[in-house]
Structures are given as C-alpha cells and as structure tokens.
C-alpha cells in the first residue's frame, strides 16, 4: 500500500490499533486493512518489587498507554500529514495471569500482582489436586484462593477480578470481558463450551473457605468472548484515556482483550492444530496447539487456549533475556569507559557473533538468569548467578554463549516434557522476540536446545501489538464464519516468508552437556535463595 493510500485509510478510519502492555514496554501499533504497520509508538517501563510483590502502578499503566499512543499519533502526523481522529477497531493485550481485584466502586483494592510472583504455592497445589488439572502459581484463581487462605482483609470487598488487558478494556469500553485465551490463565476452560469449566467452578465453590465468602467464583470472573466477537465500543471517556489530546473520536469497535501468549500465536500464524510458537523476552514461553488430550497432568505444563478456544500446551518460564540485557549493558559501560560509543544493536550483534566461537558446551560455565523465582526449577525467588569450576574454560565466547544457553535453559527443561514424555509433535515451531533480532545466532541456539527446527518469520516485525491489531481487524471483518486459522492462513500470512534453521548434531550434544551442568549446579542456586536474603 502506497503512502497516499495509507493516508486516505487513516483519514477514513479504516485502520486498526493494537496496544500491548508487555513486561518492559507498552506499545501501540496502527495497522492498515492489508495488515501493514502504518505507525507505532512505545513507552519503556519496569516492574517494581514492593514489599516482596512484583507490581506495576496503575498510574504508569495510563501514562504508558497515553505516551505510546501520542508517539504513534505523532508519527502519523509526521509521515502522512494528517491527525489521527478515527480508528475502526481497537484491541488491548497484556501480560497474562496475575491478580487485579476490584470493589463495587471500581477501585483496585490491592496493588496489581503480576505473573512474576511466586507467592501462591499453597493455593496452586491444593487446586491442582482438587481439579486434577494443573493450576500454576501465577494464574488468577491461584492468587484469589491464596488471598482467601491468607484471610487477607480485602477478600470480602471483591466485586470482580480481571487481568491487565481486561482492566484496560473495561476502562475504555465499560465491558468486563476477556478473550478466551486470556481467560484461560484466570480459570480452567472447557474446550467444548469455550467457557469456564463448570465442574471445576462447582468444586471451587464447594470449598469451606469459599462458602464462607459473600460471593461465588462465577460472580467475580469476567465474561468470556472468543476471537472475532465484539467486546463493545470505545466510549467517550475511553477515548480520552487513550488520547490525552482529545482528538480521538469514540465509537471504535473493541476486540476481546487477549494475553501476550495469544497475540504471540497470532503474530506467528500458530493457531492451527500441530503448530507452535516460542516467544522470548523478559519471560519466555512456548505454545503448542494440541490435536488430542495430554496423557497426564504435569505441574510444568499449563493447559490454556488459542484466542479462538483450541487447547494449547504452554511451557511458561519467568526468566528469559533480562540477564543477557544486564550483561550487555555492562559491556556497553566498559566501552564508554574506554571512550568508545557503541550502538545497542551493534553491541548485541558483536557479542552474539563472538559466542559462535565458543565451545559447544560453553566451556563448562553455568549461569542462572533468575531475576525472579523460576517455577520450572522450583526456585522461589530471583538470584541471578554465574558459576564456574576451576577447570572451566573462561573466555568471552564461552561467557556470551552461556548467557544465550541459560536464557533458554528453563524452557528446554519444560519442553522436554512435551517432546520426550508426551511425544507431542509439531509441524512448525516459530520463534519471535527481541533476542532474535540479531540474525541466526539465538535462533540456532534455540534449535539446538530443543533439537527441533526453528523458524523466524520476517513479516510480523511488531510482534504482540501487531497481533492484537490483527485480532481487532478479524473482529471487524469476520465474514461467513471464517475461522481465525483460515483468516490468518489465507489473508494475513498469504505471502509470508521466513528462515528455518535445523538443529546441528554436535551443538545439540553440547547443549545437552551444558544442561547436565546446569541441573548439577541448581542446588547452589536454591541455596543462594536461602542464604542471600532480599533487601526490603
């Protein structure tokens, strides 16, 4: 689409906006009806550790959204010479899971508890046994039940709970709803009805601790909508929340809010059966769309859904690229101390390329990139730690390779359950995330780690928020019962291309040796949590 045509589409409002609140960035992406990115804007933010709880302030949620929107609107003005006033459809996505309880006045009654917290172990274990279904610690129902078990003072004031994407959607549309994919991180979903599992709802309500409450769990959970449905319209108040300048008009169609896992599936065309994707960022997760039931309940495998309600096996790890970023930042400081200014992309590229020269097993070095606790390896709190033996081969190439290896290590441990124990097969496994911006290196490491071909596509450059904009377009353009999978395959990704790397046998063997060292050193990481107490 040429520039003049894009301008006309913007003026007519024939465009879609995707907003995603990720772990380190809030981003707004404007997409044309032929799925091209017209403009984007972002806002960098960081979670805060408040009294042992990982959180983000609500003020920063709206500051971030308004800043990213303003930056996008400014780009529209500079690129196309027009002001952004009308948007056909809007969708909001965000980090899944966590806990946001509200009272009848619509007030958040405890600070947002994010997916990163490992504070619901008791509740998660009890609910997993009760349901015979894995309930991870970060799921909203685990947070709610743990608050009940703790007899927290806010419990009887709860009117409803929701996710971050659900909260923002409620504020801009007045509708308390979730997309089915995001809802699947709140409470288990029945894949036939695409609603909360009624048998499990009944079991939860029958708990003595819940009978003592003034509410039943169905009363406090958001309504569920599958992809393609309408989740209300942008209200006048909602338009002002997005656009502080007041130019944005009300009336945009609002799509069902989704989690970042769902938008990752959409942006990689991985919603069909036997497809899968991997998103690697601050956290990392893999999603495999299943063609049959799992053989067993696994505490390290989440059962969630695609945005249209198909069953998905998810391996979620709390820690991904944060430690890589910290070490690269340190090398950048060193360069500046020498009087050398290196652009971030060049710094990452140089260091990643150097890692290729390292030993296949990273020279016996081990790193735990745990800024927060890690559920897969049963580490309750974050203690980033680098460790080596006296006979390890310490050099720059091995050190950087260790950082890349360790970023995927918990994911590897979880994926081995799917690949080796459940024997789940995928036709394609597509990866996305900032770590893959440096060509080939991280992609090859991931292929070797999982011993599986990995594809990186070249047309979904904006990732999750682009995927959310696509879901908003689907909600406004769905015709003749066209499935989400067909919409993506036949329209969005019709001309898509990508690069696939196969695992290299020698490197696969080297990574397996690294993982053996990694597992052997885990007791040291667990002991660090016990011995090195957090500073309040």
TrEMBL record:
Keywords for this protein: Kinase, Transferase
Pfam families listed in its UniProt record: FGGY_C, FGGY_N
A GO molecular-function descriptor: kinase activity
Gene3D superfamilies: 3.30.420.40
InterPro entries linked to this entry: ATPase_NBD (IPR043129), FGGY_C (IPR018485), FGGY_Carb_Kinase (IPR050406), FGGY_N (IPR018484)
Keyword Kinase: yes
GO annotation (BP), single: carbohydrate metabolic process
Carbohydrate kinase FGGY N-terminal domain boundaries: 16-241
Domain Carbohydrate kinase FGGY C-terminal: 277-475
Family: Belongs to the FGGY kinase family.
Protein name in UniProt: ATPase
Organism this protein belongs to: Lentilactobacillus curieae
């Amino acid at each position: 689409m040429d520039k003049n045509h894009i301008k006309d589409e913007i003026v007519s409002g024939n465009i879609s906006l995707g907003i995603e609140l990720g772990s380190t960035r809030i981003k707004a992406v404007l997409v044309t009806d032929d799925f091209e990115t017209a403009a984007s804007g972002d806002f960098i933010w960081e979670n805060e550790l408040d009294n042992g709880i990982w959180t983000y302030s609500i003020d920063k949620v709206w500051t971030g959204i308004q800043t990213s929107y303003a930056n996008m609107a400014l780009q529209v003005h500079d690129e196309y010479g027009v002001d952004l006033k009308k948007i056909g459809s809007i969708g909001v996505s965000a980090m899944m899971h966590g806990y946001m309880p509200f009272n009848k006045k619509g007030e958040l009654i405890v600070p947002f508890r994010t997916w990163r917290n490992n504070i619901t172990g008791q509740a998660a274990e009890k609910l997993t046994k009760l349901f015979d279904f894995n309930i991870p610690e970060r799921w909203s129902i685990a947070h709610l039940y743990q608050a009940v078990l703790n007899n927290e003072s806010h419990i009887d004031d709860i009117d409803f709970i929701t996710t971050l994407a659900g909260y923002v959607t409620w504020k801009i549309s007045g509708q308390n709803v979730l997309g089915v994919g995001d809802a699947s991180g709140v409470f288990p979903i029945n894949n036939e009805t695409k609603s909360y599992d009624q048998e499990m709802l009944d079991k939860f309500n029958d708990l003595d601790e819940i009978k003592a409450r003034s509410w039943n769990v169905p009363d406090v959970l958001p309504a569920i909508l599958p992809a393609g449905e309408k989740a209300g319209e942008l209200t006048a108040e909602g338009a002002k929340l997005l656009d502080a300048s007041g130019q944005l008009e009300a009336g945009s169609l609002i799509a069902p809010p989704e989690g970042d896992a769902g938008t990752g599936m959409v942006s990689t065309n991985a919603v069909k059966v036997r497809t899968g994707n991997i998103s690697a960022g601050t956290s990392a997760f893999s999603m495999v769309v299943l063609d049959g039931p799992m053989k067993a309940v696994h505490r390290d495998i989440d059962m969630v859904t695609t945005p249209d309600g198909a069953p998905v096996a998810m391996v979620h790890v709390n820690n991904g690229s944060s430690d890589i970023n910290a070490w690269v930042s340190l090398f950048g400081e060193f360069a500046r101390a020498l009087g050398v200014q290196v652009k971030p992309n060049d710094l990452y590229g140089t260091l990643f390329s150097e890692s290729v020269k390292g030993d296949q097993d990273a020279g016996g070095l081990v790193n735990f990139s745990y800024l927060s606790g890690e559920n897969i390896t049963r580490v309750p709190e974050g203690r980033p730690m680098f460790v080596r033996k006296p006979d390890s081969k310490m050099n720059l190439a091995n050190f950087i390779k260790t950082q890349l290896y360790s970023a995927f290590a918990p994911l590897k441990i979880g994926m081995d359950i799917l690949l080796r124990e459940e024997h789940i097969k995928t036709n394609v496994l597509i990866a996305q995330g900032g770590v893959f911006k440096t060509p080939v290196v991280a992609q090859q490491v991931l292929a070797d780690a999982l011993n599986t071909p990995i594809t990186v596509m070249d047309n979904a450059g904006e990732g999750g928020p682009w995927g959310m904009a696509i879901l908003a377009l689907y909600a406004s353009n769905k015709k003749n019962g066209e499935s989400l999978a067909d919409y993506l395959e036949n329209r969005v990704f019709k001309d898509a291309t990508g690069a696939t790397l196969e695992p290299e046998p020698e490197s696969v063997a080297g990574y397996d040796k690294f993982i053996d060292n990694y597992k052997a050193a885990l007791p040291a990481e667990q002991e660090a949590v016990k011995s090195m107490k957090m500073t309040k």
